[in-house]
Design goal:
about 250 residues; Rossmann fold; about 45% helix; alpha/beta; seven-stranded parallel sheet; globular; EC 1.1.1.47; 7 strands
C-alpha cells in the first residue's frame, strides 16, 4: 500500500527480484518513491520487474548477479552506488528451495548448494551493503528467512538450517551496527503464492493451503508491505527483529 512516497530520495537494493516476493517488494519500493536496483541471476529474468517498476513511474537498474559469488556481489553493490549515488535499503531476498529428503539421504552437494546460496549468499550481500552504509552514515537491511527458520521441516533440513542461521546472522549484525545508525531485521514468510511454492509443491498448491491456519496462501504484496514498514521511519525503533508473516503456520 502506497504511503505518500515515503521513500522519495532513497535507493533500494533488492535481490531475488525477478519474481515472487522480490518482484512485489521492488515494485512497492518504486511505487513509494525509491529508485530500485533489482538483482537476480540473469538480466532477462529481471525485465518483467523492470517493466512493472516503470509502469508505476519508478526507476529501475537491472543487475545480473549470482549472490554466491563475492566478486559479483561487490560489483553489483558498486554499480548501484555508482548509478544512484547511495544505498539506503537492502532487501536480501534471493534464495532457493531444497530437494526434499530426510537428513541421512541429503547429498553433500545439495547441502552445500542450499547453504551457499541462502546463507553464505546473504552474508556476502550484507558484507558489501554494510560497508557502503557505514560510509554514508546509516541504512536498513531486511533479510528473508522463513517460517522454516523457527521450526523443523520434515524433508527440508538444509533449507531450515539455512533459514534458522539467517535469523542468527540478522540478530548479530543488528547488535554490531546499532550505534552506527544501521538497522537489520528479518522477515519470516509462510506459504506464499510464488513460483518457488509452485515448484516445492509440484503444482499441488492445496497441500500448502491445508497447512495454513487462515485457510489461504499469503500474497507477495503482503510480505512487501512488511518489508516497507521495516525499512521506513515507522519501523525506526525496530532492529534485530524476526517477524513472522505466515498466517499462523509457524505457531
Amino acid at each position: 500500500m502506497s504511503n505518500a512516497n515515503r521513500f522519495t530520495g532513497k535507493v533500494a537494493f533488492v535481490t531475488g527480484a525477478a519474481s515472487g516476493i522480490g518482484r512485489a517488494t521492488a515494485v512497492a519500493f518504486a511505487t513509494d518513491g525509491a529508485r530500485v536496483a533489482i538483482i537476480d541471476r540473469t538480466e532477462d529474468a529481471l525485465r518483467g520487474t523492470a517493466d512493472a517498476i516503470r509502469d508505476v513511474g519508478g526507476e529501475a537498474l537491472i543487475i545480473a548477479c549470482d549472490i554466491a559469488q563475492p566478486d559479483q556481489v561487490e560489483a553489483a553493490v558498486g554499480q548501484a552506488v555508482e548509478t544512484f549515488g547511495r544505498l539506503d535499503i537492502a532487501f536480501n531476498n534471493a534464495g532457493v528451495e531444497n530437494k526434499a529428503a530426510p537428513v541421512a539421504e541429503i547429498e553433500l552437494d545439495e547441502w552445500d548448494r542450499i547453504l551457499d546460496i541462502n546463507l553464505r549468499g546473504t552474508f556476502i550481500c550484507m558484507k558489501h551493503e554494510l560497508a557502503q552504509m557505514l560510509l554514508q552514515g546509516g541504512g536498513v537491511i531486511v533479510n528473508t528467512s522463513s517460517g522454516a527458520g523457527i521450526r523443523g521441516v520434515a524433508g527440508g533440513a538444509s533449507y531450515a538450517a539455512s533459514k534458522h542461521a539467517i535469523i542468527g546472522l540478522t540478530k548479530s549484525a543488528a547488535l554490531d551496527y546499532a550505534k552506527q545508525n544501521i538497522r537489520v531485521n528479518a522477515i519470516l514468510p509462510g506459504n506464499i503464492e510464488t513460483p518457488m511454492m509452485d515448484r516445492f509443491t509440484g503444482g499441488d498448491i492445496q497441500k500448502a493451503i491445508d497447512l495454513e491456519p487462515v485457510g489461504r496462501l499469503g500474497k507477495p504484496e503482503e510480505i512487501a508491505d512488511a518489508v516497507l514498514w521495516m525499512s521506513a521511519d515507522l519501523g525506526s525503533f525496530v532492529t534485530g527483529a524476526a517477524i513472522s508473516i505466515d498466517g499462523g503456520w509457524s505457531l
